[in-house]
Amino acid sequence: MLPDSRRVVEIMRAVAASEIMPRFRRLTTSDVAAKKGPLDVVTIADVEAERALSAALTALLPGSTVVGEEGADASPDVLTALDGADPVWVIDPVDGTLNFAEGRACFAVIVALCRRGETLAGWILDPVAGIAVGAAVGEGAWIDDGGSPRPLRLPPPRPIRQMSGSLGRGLGRRVERRRDSGRAEGPANMVKYGCTGREYMELGQGLLDFAQYTRLKPWDHAAGVLIHTEAGGYSRIVETGLPYRAQGRILESTVLLAPDQASWAALHRLLEDARLDAIV
Predict the structure, then answer these.
(1) Whole-angstrom Cα distance, residue 64 to residue 86?
(2) Is the pTM of this model over 0.85?
(3) In 167, 186, 265, 275, which residue has its Cα 20 to 30 A from 93's Cα atom?
């Protein structure tokens, strides 16, 4: 049985209020540390929010375990819990940490509940705006802006030339150059927020039409892919054509999300042509 989704959102809001927002734009030098490079940082808010979320969520669902971004960075073996039979909370306490550390109001809290690689439910919270989106498998997606949750359903797909999307910066520039030169159709607008969770919130609402991501970490993608799917979207791993699964390792793969299967195929052709164009 899934936990009460309202309680999960309450926990996320409470932790954001106690551990994240009081530190926003108030971090000291000692509150921020580099991980693998100057653009990959962790803050005291990440650490304390993950600790608080882990304690509250495992208490909400006895027998569950946690795979958190900061815990997995310290001990990568914890990822293997995603392949087991016990339910696993997958947590990104502050997605968009660099934005958070630099005082930009573009970050999110991401939580997913997985078992044996399947994402059962997912939630994403924008702590600044107070907006949450979520979904449970087979039950649809919803948005909660502080009132009663409302269903999320993607609008009909637009032509590619009218779409907005998110791509890696190199591929995005190639797509834009091909569009601007008239060599190929291309989307009207490209974005990159530095916060996967915020992009998934917009994908689930139809504000972003498509996105492609590589090197898939479960805390970044498990919740968002489910929310997008339950809102009516279509996504597949580009290399295999299979649905995304939250496996016990970081996937060196690519996921493409689109409004439906037909637009997925059209976008895949467009992006593959742009990729090959750079090789020639």
Answers:
(1) 6
(2) yes
(3) 167
